[in-house]
Design a protein that fits this description.
mainly alpha; 10 helices; globular
Length: 214
């Protein structure tokens, strides 16, 4: 089952190419329900097979994420929160998820647009409160690019490892490889998230010391 799904996703990304990665990641980073976990790992798999260039795929994934994030930012800053509340249900966006994301941004401020890219649900909605707050665009793009780049790199890496580990395997054996590495993915994500959070804590402490010293 998993191997069949994986192969279908790989075939889809191969057919769509780099422009497809940009489009799908733009959709994922907006309010449209397209999980990045279904886009970037297949691209990494194709990179392992020599069909795609992993650096171009990373660039495309990051650019797509920034495009989708800016779409949310623009709508929030120009139209307002009400449009997401009223029409969010049509794209599976619940008011609870929106409120959770707004609370996250309220607690952490602008840096949340970076840290939030590594957390489910918050990842593709964090640009909404940023837009409502009229966050400076240079900072918004810098934080979004950094967070999205890390997330895309992790997913690409998982797909790449699966591709290399699955060389010369039958479809059934590939399914076993995919299952095994999918379960281990959390072991890759946890230390990365921990490092980002630790960096964020240090950033906030230095910022607080600077404010108290001035």
């Amino acid at each position: 089952m998993l191997s069949e799904l994986m192969l279908r996703l790989v075939k889809t990304i191969e057919t769509l190419g780099y422009s497809g990665i940009v489009l799908l990641m733009a959709m994922e980073s907006s309010v449209l329900p397209v999980p990045s976990e279904l886009v970037m790992p297949p691209a990494g798999y194709l990179a392992a097979k020599g069909v795609m260039n992993i650096w171009i795929a990373l660039l495309c994934g990051t650019v797509g994420s920034m495009v989708g994030a800016y779409a949310n930012y623009w709508v929030a800053s120009r139209v307002g929160r009400w449009v997401f509340v009223r029409y969010g249900k049509f794209v599976l966006l619940s008011q609870k998820s929106l409120e959770r994301t707004e609370a996250f941004f309220g607690r952490h401020g602008e840096i949340a647009t970076f840290v939030g890219r590594l957390f489910p649900v918050i990842r593709h909605l964090i640009s909404i409160p940023a837009g409502l707050a009229r966050m400076r665009l240079d900072r918004f793009f810098a934080y979004t690019a950094a967070g999205a780049g890390i997330w895309c790199a992790i997913l690409l890496g998982i797909g790449y490892v699966i591709g290399r580990a699955g060389e010369g395997r039958t479809q059934e054996e590939l399914g076993a490889v995919f299952t095994a590495y999918s379960h281990r993915a959390v072991l890759v994500l946890l230390p990365v998230v921990a490092l980002v959070v630790a960096g964020y804590v240090l950033f906030r402490r230095r910022e607080a010391k600077g404010e108290s010293g001035s």
